[in-house]
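Pilot study result, target chain (67 residues):
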Amino acid sequence: MADSDGVIQVLSCKKEERIPAFKTLPTGEAVTSLVTGQAAEQQDKLFAATGHSIKGINKKGKVVTDG
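Predicted structure:
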């Protein structure tokens, strides 16, 4: 999930229970697109677009690509 403040929150589901995996700090810019990695080396990454930049985030919430 993402919001207009730039916060990205990832939840995992186990036995019909939602468990927060991580939540990023607000960036001040709305997240306009949020997609998962498709290539084999990107399967555990999430890519978020805000304004004119794209950030790659790993499954622990760490930014791994910033461009």
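One observation from the pilot: The chain has one domain: 9-66. A full batch analysis is planned for the follow-on phase.
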